[in-house]
């Protein structure tokens, strides 16, 4: 029987359609991208080489270079060492997610997915023939997940629970205590936990000392967990397509390696070397410090905007990651977020992301801001948006009118 076709990937299509003409791109989810020159400037060791142009461009090590995989393994070794061979390098987290889902989910399986989130995480399992239920985080609970609701969703054929932590689009986190409860449930029902952790470790508004601070799922005491990540978001390097799959389970990694062999062979050796350099001890601290400072500064600027337009917008202030999900209304009624975003890009060059189009119909009125762009872009873009709020906002249609 043919598998269900994939439905359009709304957020990626929206980005593709508008990105090139945006004057103020406040929709991008990466922390402002950097050049190789800037990356080298962030290094504490100016002697260390980023790339040697005399290197022969072979396929390299098929699953990813030893250097890159051991730098990544260090990131997951805070509680217990992780071996480099438990990591597979992929072209971005998008390929990592695809590989994990293709390898581990199929017809007859039931999958539960955190919601709202990146559409790939629930559409791909559906297309593979799995039944998917959404585990909804709700704004009135500050986008937190309820473990009792998860328990009620579990069926005899539930195979996997998918989470996204920190979360796109809300910028919230799944707290340590919720992760602990999730692991208990997973253990009891023998479930695989897949965590898209592409926004780790961009924790701009929570201290690592906080009891809520979420560890990676790989630091939790349960073997059947698998994490995906990349250098695109927290490390500002989306232009090298480097992501990864990591698990402590040889069985899970082996299953993914088998599927990966059909799509990837290896990633670009240049990309692999640049990523290894960025994640080395000489560079990673400077890079993350730049990005966390930028996120804090820009979030402060966005918070001032929200405060001054309280009559029109409300939010749960983000804690981590690069996005904020802001709800816009007029006299208590949701505005048409798609018309709002379309009008903004047409008339002002401001690019935002409409919630109901990109994250599900129920998010009418919501707009996702990617606030970790260059600070001047955010400043200038919000200035333009202020002007629009004063002059054009009242003319926007309400969500119900379409
Ligand atoms: C939650 C999530 N996962 C994965 C990706 C893909 O990222 P990349 O392939 O650039 O690593 C994105 C991009 O927006 C995302 O938001």
UniProtKB/TrEMBL annotation:
<dbReference type="InterPro" id="IPR015421">
    <property type="entry name" value="PyrdxlP-dep_Trfase_major"/>
</dbReference>
<dbReference type="InterPro" id="IPR004839">
    <property type="entry name" value="Aminotransferase_I/II_large"/>
</dbReference>
<dbReference type="Pfam" id="PF00155">
    <property type="entry name" value="Aminotran_1_2"/>
</dbReference>
<comment type="similarity">
    <text>Belongs to the class-I pyridoxal-phosphate-dependent aminotransferase family.</text>
</comment>
<protein>
    <recommendedName>
        <fullName>Aminotransferase class I/classII large domain-containing protein</fullName>
    </recommendedName>
</protein>
<keyword id="KW-0663">Pyridoxal phosphate</keyword>
<dbReference type="InterPro" id="IPR015422">
    <property type="entry name" value="PyrdxlP-dep_Trfase_small"/>
</dbReference>
<dbReference type="InterPro" id="IPR004838">
    <property type="entry name" value="NHTrfase_class1_PyrdxlP-BS"/>
</dbReference>
<dbReference type="InterPro" id="IPR015424">
    <property type="entry name" value="PyrdxlP-dep_Trfase"/>
</dbReference>
<feature type="domain" description="Aminotransferase class I/classII large">
    <location>
        <begin position="50"/>
        <end position="384"/>
    </location>
</feature>
